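Ticket opened by: R.M.
Priority: normal
Category: complex prediction / small molecule

The reporter submitted a protein together with HDD and asked that the result be attached to this ticket for the collaborator who will pick it up next week. Submitted input follows.
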Amino acid sequence: MAHKPTAHSKSPRQSAKQDQLDAFRESPAGEFLTTDQGVRVASTDDSLKAGARGPTLLEDFHLREKIMRFDHERIPERVVHARGAGAHGYFQVYKSLAKYTKAAFLQDPAIKTPVFVRFSTVAGSRGSADTVRDVRGFAVKFYTSEGNFDLVGNNMPVFFIQDGIKFPDLIHAVKPNPRKEIPQAASAHDSFWDFISLTPETAHMVMWVMSDRALPRSYRMMEGFGVHTFRLIDGQGKARLVKWHWKPVLGMSSLVWEEAQQINGKDPDFHRRDLWEAIESGNAVEYELGLQVVDEDEALAFGFDLLDATKLLPEEVVPIERVGKLVLDRNPQNFFAEVEQAAFCVGNVVPGIDFTNDPLLQARLFSYLDTQITRLGGPNFAELPINRPIAPVHNNQHDGFARQTMNVGAANYLPNSLGDGFPKPATEQQGGYAHHAERVDGKTTRARSDSFKDHFSQARLFLNSLSPVERGHVTDALSFELGHCERQAVRERVVNAILAHIDAELAAAVAAAVGVEVKTAAKAPAITTGRKGKAVTASPALSMVRGALPSIRTRRIALLAAPGCVGGSLAAVKRALEAEGASVEVVSTALGAVASADGKDPVAVRSLLGVASVMYDAVAVADGEASSATLAANADAVRFVKEAFGHCKAIAAIGHGAAVLTAAGIPAEARSAGVVTGAKPTELGRDFIVAIAQHRHWGREQVRSRPPLGRPPKR
Ligand code: HDD
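Result attached by the on-call engineer:
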């Protein structure tokens, strides 16, 4: 029987998943230590020996079990997306989507469907750093009343390749060199760019990965995409094509490259910590679900093929309908059980959602189910608490490693009469999944469709959509990455086989930076069109500048203070920032109360030795002559302010605090937008908030690469 949601059951489903997980939790509070067999253990610090200095005895079952269990604690990490973090929450539609789909969880705004989301990087191993230049995974498991639906997406709307058969090649090329296992979690090396230069279909995705999208400030501030075109099927069996989008309620924001590299050293858990802390502090993480829905016969209506995952459908052409909200409000209680053991499978769909013939999607349908067998040790991974659906499961698939369900009954086959024919298949009306009846005929072939042949025009469309600052970052990123390629031939081929086909200026700037020459001047025509056939050459919505929210909610702000500071004005600024939802920390030369000049001692929760400006969105310096003199003479404090300035962040100095700005090389005359000084905390706080809400003050950016054209160095 299909379990249709009951109207207005506000959260039973949500709590059903929570209860299911809680049933597996084990808390040691008030309990005796036992073996796995339940025998109470008397001592766990000394092994059983023949005499205090004698040999250890094999009969020590507690020692053997404890060491055996420890030896097998690790499981294989994910072959890609190994590094990640997850959170629980729920999803609700704003209004019924019955006009598009019969999926039960999309029918009723009163229903909260429990979800588990895992964010990840792609290339690095499980212990790698968070803020590398990489794609971010955005995988959502919806525990619906009709079974689990997994939307396994990324924070970029396109992909490197068009056919999943090339996925192992792509990943081998980007992962560390098999001989030396270097470099970790980085694409700035020969094999990646060798593959790119020989695989023009990667051109569009390469522009995304070289853009600021690959450096999200937070998982909470990035978009998500289902990438492929899927199908929605309504109650009458009518199919429509759909692209899935996640829009962060906090808007989009990114790090700058140098900052990202520093964070990797200072706090490799930056994104994981950010997600955890936001949820712990009661700031639920929210995204709106957006849909682009088009008719089945429009698959080729926009100048490219909607089955081609290297293309996006500009939202200016088909607007994104915001249809519901995803809220992440609960941290896992056990990382291994809930995050590491989560198994997302692209093939997990529910009635009302179906696949298309996108060849990348088709290969994924096999891969995700298959990979869990190695990673989770057998075919029973769907029984793990995090993966269990809340919909009832009845079938004749049983046994295998680590089976937990004990199937009972007279017959374990179908058809049967011994078990009265149960479990019996459901008709479509009873909720049985019916695959969309797509007409398929064609000759067996390994050919790529002609409709997949353009590789460059959307790469250019993306580049054209960026602000000048964002374009500059793409140029810098390419120069950095290719600058790490030892082979001149690789650098030359990327420039000439890829970049020159996208944009002549980009190719010239990168060529100059990496010591090669542009020898090609080819430019493919624009192919993307609106419904009426009008060419589309840019999609302003793709610029992150437009997607930023002028708010300081959940932003991290450091207040630098030293003994002798004026605590009153600092507290006033702190209150003003916190009233706007920011998270504010006093940073000083030591932890604890900072002796103030006015008896209003602020409490430092961080010391300058332990943090750096890259871990904050903005910095303010306290008033007070003695405090400012101490900070101006402190190398860490000076670097703090200098780096914040270099990374284009908002900076404030109350009264004498301005001396620290001067010590950091920001004299009054060089102060640009985003630097706020003054003695009145109310006015200063207000101006500082406005400056922080702009996130970055790009006018200050120091252009590092993009050197003048010149003779390439020979390698
Ligand atoms: Fe994949 C994991 C996203 C193409 C094969 N992929 C994985 C995860 C995400 C994506 C977010 C991590 C899930 C988690 O948190 O556990 N992958 C994508 C997107 C793709 C894509 C958006 C293109 C549109 N992937 C792709 C292809 C293949 C795979 C073409 C193979 C043919 N992906 C896998 C995998 C992984 C995986 C090997 C590794 C761990 C896992 O599945 O559970 O099966």
